[in-house]
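User: I'm putting together a small comparison set for a docking exercise, and I want a reference complex before I start. The sequence is below, and the ligand is iron/sulfur cluster. Could you produce the 3D structure with the ligand included, as structure tokens?
Assistant: Of course. I'll restate your input first, then give the structure tokens for the complex.
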Amino acid sequence: MLQISQSLIKEVLKHDHCPKQVYFSFVEGKDLIEPSEAMLTGRYFESELLGACRGGKKQEAKMINKGKEKAQAYKDCDELVLFAKGVLDNLGIRISENFIQVELISDFLKGNIDLISNDIISKDDIAIYDIKWTGTKEDDRWNGWGDPANNQDAEIQAVHYTMLYHKKYGVYPPFYFLIFGKDRWVKILRFRFSEDAIELHKERIKYTADKISQYADEKWKGNGSFNKCISCPFYNMCDDRATVPQIEEVII
Ligand code: SF4
């Protein structure tokens, strides 16, 4: 059975998602998007700070000068890693290799948690942490972390991991985003959830599960438009791709 991750929920909530893309990406595990430079730098940051990035892998730096020198973005990132290590030390957050990039699975839910460690406030309690690297400014409300209460992606990730942990271990741990900006700033966000927020997420999970079951019944039939298909990474392997644009009727 396909387990429901926060990224699957986000994908299925997109109004123009394609079931076949969901199949290639979440059932077969193929990359839905080619990682951008910013994403690779973020993975490198996480990898150097914690010891591994997503999937428990090590992200290597991009090298220049025939492999003799790190690219400038990665040298800058090394500086930020030192800064971030100092911040984690000062906050008293311990990093243990058994508690980084933890894959949690409980029944039909799953999630990959960057770090499980002691809580910043109650040192004897456990908290879960997600580490972010960003090239945006601290107050960027549109592409960054300037307005976290209205950041639906962050909310879904935070509530999903919190609920998953509760389902597995019976407690709701504090959830933090530790966000490090390229220009050397840090933001610590603790997400707290009302009962309504938990209920809303249960509805999202049910919606996702229903959609997935419907798509499986329909053999994951693709529904991409011509414009979506031509930029789809699975175009060449997909039998359902649209090869001609649709005609839109304009009735006056
Ligand atoms: S090529 Fe089109 S139909 Fe096929 S997976 Fe991609 S978006 Fe969906």
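The helical segments are 6-13, 19-27, 37-50, 72-91, 152-169, 195-217, 226-230. The CA atoms of residues 131 and 178 lie 5 Å apart.
User: Thanks, that's exactly what I needed.
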